[in-house]
From TrEMBL:
Secretion signal span: 1-18
Domain Phytase-like: 39-187
InterPro entries in alphabetical order: Phytase-like_dom
Keywords: Signal
Protein known as: Phytase-like domain-containing protein
Record SUPFAM superfamilies: YWTD domain
């Protein structure tokens, strides 16, 4: 009798389980990116009518992505970053970043880009835990971030490991609030507020911090548990949206404390046979959200996917049913 009741319970609860599964985003278009040096697309944003990208292998250029015949052509905009401010990262992490920069030939390791409504661009340097602002007119400058930003992040368990530092950046349209995403081990979110020429933490720099591991989605064929991660963050209609590379999903979060409200998956589209890269981890690195959908940039590191394509890819997903603010 208990066995029968158990089976009945499963049947009754099955629809509830199904409802809890993230809605699948649907691919509207995908674009190979031509002309991006070394193929490393590490950050993506939209600035006015232009789609912009950065590469973690290039210190003096960002890229306008122009649609041409089914692909995106990368057109370089060159800039000169001034000497960076002193880094508050520990010596060991900085030493490893320096050693890798000698091999790569660049030192700033730009991992994210965002834009405010005035057209100012903000690039986050993982190697330095610093933000470079490229204004509409004038010379680039490093933001004067709070001295205690890195200290608070490390006290929360973030920014402790080489190559697991700042990975994403978002700004509100007025350019008054700036969010930074820590990649993994632990992943987390920080926010700073602009006060004239400087930036301050109001009520603490860290708004969210999370440890833990999870297995990649089943289509990867790997059961190896890996650290939860953020690979980018975007701001849209007073909400934060995190790109979660390992889980192949986008989540909407509260900008005040990072609490997750809803997630949408791109497993079915992103891990289709022709689009799979044969690695257990994800390759989605850049995120931009608008009313009509999401732009997601892939840093494939030169690896070929199932159909043989080796160029970086930008996906355009349609907005979910009910829009991004839906329950």
């Amino acid at each position: 009798m208990r066995g029968v009741l158990f089976l009945v319970g499963l049947l009754i609860s099955a629809p509830l389980w199904a409802a809890e599964a993230p809605e699948q985003l649907r691919l509207a278009a995908e674009y190979p990116v031509e002309g991006l040096p070394q193929g490393n697309l590490s950050g993506l944003t939209r600035c006015g009518d232009e789609l912009l990208a950065v590469s973690d292998r290039v210190d003096n250029q960002l890229y306008r992505l122009k649609p041409i015949g089914g692909l995106l052509q990368a057109e370089a905009e060159t800039f000169l970053a001034p000497p960076p401010p002193p880094s508050n990262l520990p010596w060991g992490v900085r030493a490893r970043s320096w050693a890798v920069s000698m091999l790569r030939g660049n030192e700033l390791d730009f991992e994210g880009i965002t834009c405010d409504q005035a057209g100012n661009r903000y690039l986050v340097s993982e190697a330095l835990a610093a933000v470079l602002q490229i204004p509409v007119s004038g010379e680039p400058t490093w933001l004067m971030l709070p001295d205690n930003l890195v200290r608070q992040a490390r006290a929360s368990g973030m920014l402790l490991h080489f190559n697991a530092l700042l990975e994403g950046i978002a700004v509100d349209p007025k350019g008054e609030r700036l969010w930074l995403a820590a990649e993994r081990e632990r992943r987390g979110l920080m926010v700073v507020h602009r006060q004239q020429a400087t930036w301050r933490c109001t009520g603490g720099c860290v708004i969210f911090s999370e440890a833990g591991t999870e297995a990649p989605p089943a289509p990867t064929g790997s059961g190896q548990r890996m650290p939860r991660d953020f690979s980018d963050v975007a701001f849209f209609e007073e909400k934060l949206f995190t790109l979660e590379r390992l889980a192949h999903q986008i989540c909407r979060r509260k900008p005040s404390n990072g609490e997750v409200e809803r997630c949408w998956s791109f497993v079915e589209e992103g891990l289709a046979d022709t689009r799979r890269y044969g690695v257990p981890f994800g390759v989605a690195e850049g995120l931009w959200i608008d009313a009509d959908g999401a732009w997601v940039g892939l840093d494939n590191g030169g690896k070929a996917r199932g159909d043989g394509e080796r160029r970086p890819i930008v996906w355009r997903f349609s907005a979910p049913k009910g829009g991004w603010s839906g329950k």
